[in-house]
Amino acid sequence: MEILDILIIGGGPIGLNCALEAQKNNLTHLIIEKGTIVNSLYNYPLYMRFFSTAEKLEIDGIPFISTAPKPGRQEALEYYQGIARQREVNINLYERVMKVSKSGDVFDIETSKAAYKAKNVVISTGFYDIPNLMNIPGEDLPKVKHYYTEPYPYAKQKVVVVGSSNSAVDAALETYRKGADVTMIIRHSEISKSVKYWVKPDIENRIAEGSIKAYFNSEIKEITENTVIFKDENGQTNEINNDFVLALTGYLPDFDFLKNSGIELQGDCLNPLYHPETMETNVPNLYLAGVVCGGKDTHLWFIENSRIHAEMIVRNVVLAREPRA
Q: Model-level pTM greater than 0.85?
C-alpha cells in the first residue's frame, strides 16, 4: 500500500488549500471528503452572502472574481469547485473517515470505503456537521429544523427562530418577507454583535416596529406538536402556537473524532491542543487546519484568517523531511 506524504480529512476551502500547497511541494497527498467539494458551503442557505469580500476568500493566490461587494454561496461554490477541477486536486468524495490511528511513524486511516496509510494527517473538518442541541423535550419533532436553506416552505406559517447569530437573523428576515409569522427566542439581551453590519439594523428595526416579535433573555423549555413553551426575561412561562421551529443555535466540531484520534482537548471550550506556528497537535505529524482549531468557539477562525494554515503545515512537513546536517 502506498504511504502518502499527507492525507487531508475535509475538502472545504482550507482542505483544498492544503492540497494545493502539497502539490507545489511535490508531496503525495489525498483529500477524503464525506460529501461534495466544499460540502459545508453547499449546505449553506441558498441566498447566503459572506461577511468577507472576495479577495479575502481566495486560496493559493487564485483570483476570486465577484460582481457583488460580498460574494454569495453560488459564487463560492463555482470558485472552489472550479479550482478543484482546474488544478486536478486529488480528492475522494462521499467517503467518510472513521478512524485515525498511528503505528510507529505511519498513520492508518480507515474510511467507509477503504484504508490508507500516510506519514502526515491534516484534520480540516470544520464544524457544520453537529448542531448545538438545546436538549429539551420535543427537539426531535419533525417540525424542528437545525439547518435553514430557503424561506419558501415557511410562507404563512408560525415560525419560531431560536438564536440571534447571522444564520438566525437571516432566517427570521427571509421567512418574514415570504409571509411567515416570525417570533425570535433569544437567550441574550440583544442581537449578536457578530451579525453582519448591513443586516443588523434591518432586524433591529423589524423588531422595533413589531413586524418580527422577539423575546430577549428568554429560553425555550419544551416544544410540542402545536406550540412552543418558553420562559421569558421575567421568569414567566409562555406558550405560543407554532408550526415550525428553526433552532439555529450554532454547530460544533466532531469532538469525539478529535479525541479518538489522540488530540488533547482543553478547557470548557474543548480547544484542541496544537502548536500555533506549525498547527501540529500533541500527536506528532497530526495537524489541524481551519475552523476546527477553535473548539466550541466557532467564531474564532474563518476562511480569511485560516488560509495561512496550509502553508504553515506544509512548511513544517517539508522541513521535517530535509536531512539534518
A: yes
